[in-house]
Amino acid sequence: MLIGIVGLIGSGKDTVAEHLVTQHGYTKDSFAKSLKDAVSAMFNWDREMLEGNTESSRHWREQPDTFWSEKFGKPVTPRWVLQHFGTEVMRGNMYDAIWVDSCIGRYKGQNTVISDTRFPNEVKKIREHGGIISLVKRGEDPEWFTNYVEGNIEPTGIHSSEYAWAK
Question: Which pTM value belongs to this model?
C-alpha cells in the first residue's frame, strides 16, 4: 500500500508517517529526498539538518545563511532554497514531475508512506499507483487557507508548496 500524507505545516505529517513505520512496518520515502540530496551537495549544507525533523533543524532552516546571503545579495535560508529550487527552478523550468518520478521510481510495491505530498501531480501519481491520500489536521485552519479552499483566493507571502495539494 502506498500512502501520501497531506496537511499544513506543523500538522503532524511526519509523526503519522513515523507511526506507520514503527507500528506497521512501512517504509518512509519523500518526494523531497532527491531535492534535499541535491541542495545539500550544492550548498554544502548538512543533509540531516535539511530534513527538519528536530526543533533545532527546523529553526536552522529558517535562518539566513551568511555565505549564500552575501552571494545572492539578499537573505537566503535553507527553507527558501528548498522551496524555490525545488519548485520554480526544477519543476518550473525543467520538468514538472521531476521529484514525483524520482520518488515513484524508488517505489517497488512495498508498504510505503510519503509524508511530504504537496502538489496535485503528487496526489495524482500516488493514486495512479493504487495509493491513498490521508489528510492530517491539527487545530483550526488558518484564515488564509480557508479563503483559498472556499473562496479560491490565492495566499500572498506563502509558498505554493504549503497549500497546492488542497485543490
Answer: 0.81
Beta-carbon contacts of 136 under 8 Å, excluding residues fewer than 6 positions away, are 5, 6, 7, 11, 12, 13, 16
> Position 12: which residue type?
G
Closest alpha carbon to 20 in 138, 132, 112: 112
Retrieve residue 66's grid coordinates. 551568511
- C-alpha–C-alpha distance, residues 41 and 75, integer Å: 20
Sign of the alpha-carbon torsion through 105, 116, 129, 28: positive
pLDDT digit string, tens, across residues 40-70: 999 999 999 999 888 999 999 999 999 999 9
How does pLDDT run across 125-144, given as a tens digit for each residue?
A: 999 999 999 999 999 998 99
Mention every residue, 6+ apart, whose C-beta is less than 8 A from residue 52: 58, 61, 79
Residues 6+ apart with CB under 8 A from 93: none
Q: Which domains, and CATH codes, for the chain?
A: 2-166 (3.40.50)
H-helix segments, the chain = 13-24, 33-43, 47-51, 55-61, 66-72, 78-84, 92-93, 98-104, 120-128, 143-151
9: pLDDT confidence band, cut at 50, 70 and 90? confident
- Tell me how many helices (H) and strands (E) the chain has: 10, 4
